[in-house]
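cron nightly-structures :: item 1 of 1
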Amino acid sequence: MKAPAQRPELIDEKATECCSLASSPLGAGEAERMTAKLKALSDPTRLRLLSHIAAQGCDAVCACDLLDVLDISQPTVSHHLKKLVDAGLLTREQRGKWAHYTVVRGAFTELRELLDLR
């Protein structure tokens, strides 16, 4: 049994929906920046830390509040937060003894644009 022919307008529509990762290929500099962000996100502990900070919206989160959430030591939390700051995903503000972290929204806009499969 032969499959029914598709209407031409459906075929054209599917062709225009082909996966395109970006409007143009990445340059070397942009690829380096995006790789740093993606590498930072590839660690489960960092991803969990980031999700806890992002869940606070625009509010800064004290590193002291993250210790109990993930049940990891302060040096480990500091190490992973530094990686996220270095990747441009978080900002760090020192307030007395503790550092406070905020999500860099523009970094996530860039990641969304890179991964947009429209």
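cron nightly-structures :: done
The chain has one domain: 24-115.
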